[in-house]
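Data availability (excerpt). The following record was deposited with the supplementary files.
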Amino acid sequence: MSTFTVTLPSGVVWTPAFVDAIDQEKCIGCGRCFKVCLRGVLELRALDEDGEFVDEDEEYERRVMTIAEPAGCIGCQACVQVCSRKCITHAPADA
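Predicted structure:
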């Protein structure tokens, strides 16, 4: 598997990693990652007691973060930097 890299003005070669998955068992739904992502990649969703997604106007047990628009991710990894539970994983894109 090949990935693409970017050479920064400083000469450092950087391999961007894009949002790949969110461990919903670890996620506490705090929304920090949602607030730091300006690209609309993430979405806070409600879960019922059975762990099924429900509409916000229905009764829900808790909320967790989901990946709404993965194509919008620019690989900055700001979301994982602010996640206190480290439940977001990233992966390099195929070239």
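Summary of structural features: The radius of gyration is 15 Å.
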